[in-house]
Write a structure and sequence with these properties.
This protein is of the alpha/beta class and 150 residues long. It has two domains: 92 residues, 4-Layer Sandwich (Deoxyribonuclease I, Chain A); 46 residues. Helices cover 51% and strands 18% of the residues. It contains five helices and eight strands; from the N terminus they run E-H-E-H-E-E-E-E-E-H-E-H-H. The protein has a four-stranded mixed sheet. The longest helix is centred in the C-terminal third of the chain and has 23 residues. The chain is elongated, with a radius of gyration of 30 Å. This is Endonuclease/exonuclease/phosphatase domain-containing protein.
C-alpha cells in the first residue's frame, strides 16, 4: 500500500506551532491517498481544532498510556493521525506505545559491559605485543638452531 507519512515535532513557541498547524492543514488538503501523521504534537488547543477542521482522526491507542511526564504531570502529546483514505484501507490499525526507557540506566549497563570487555581484553589479549615478541624470539632461536644443525 502506498501512503504519505509525515513525522511531526511540535516546537515549543506558540508562533512556531501555529506555522506547524497551518502547514499540516495545507498538506492534508493536497494529500492524495492514505496519510499518516505521527509524532510529538506538543499541543492540545490547536490539536482539537486541527482534527475538526481537517477530518483527520486519531488512531486508537491500545492502552490508555501517557507519552510524556515531568514526574508531576502526565500528558499524551504524541500520537498518530490518519485521513479517511487510510481508515478505508487500514480500518483496524492501532497504536501501541512502548514503555519509556531511561538513558541513565542504559549508561549504567554500558559501564558494566565496558568493564567486562576491559577484563576480557586484559585476560585474553593483554600484553599481546609482549607475547608476539616472545614468540618471535623463540622462532628466531629455532631457526638459528636449525641452521647450526645442518
Amino acid at each position: 500500500m502506498e501512503f504519505m507519512f509525515v513525522a511531526i515535532y511540535g516546537l515549543h513557541t506558540i508562533k512556531d506551532r501555529l506555522i506547524l498547524w497551518e502547514d499540516l492543514r495545507r498538506l492534508v488538503t493536497i494529500a492524495q491517498g492514505p496519510l499518516l501523521c505521527m509524532g510529538d504534537y506538543n499541543a492540545v488547543k490547536y490539536f482539537n481544532d486541527f482534527l475538526i477542521n481537517t477530518g483527520m482522526q486519531e488512531l486508537k491507542i491500545v492502552e490508555d498510556t501517557y507519552t510524556w511526564t515531568n514526574r508531576h504531570t502526565c500528558s499524551r502529546i504524541d500520537g498518530a493521525l490518519v485521513n479517511v483514505e487510510w481508515i478505508i484501507q487500514m480500518p483496524i490499525m492501532e497504536v501501541n506505545i512502548l514503555r519509556p526507557w531511561n538513558m541513565k540506566e542504559v549508561w549504567k549497563k554500558l559501564r558494566r559491559v565496558n568493564r567486562a570487555i576491559k577484563e576480557l581484553n586484559n585476560t585474553e589479549f593483554g600484553r599481546v605485543r609482549d607475547r608476539i615478541q616472545t614468540i618471535r624470539t623463540q622462532l628466531h632461536q629455532i631457526q638459528h638452531d636449525m641452521i647450526d644443525h645442518r
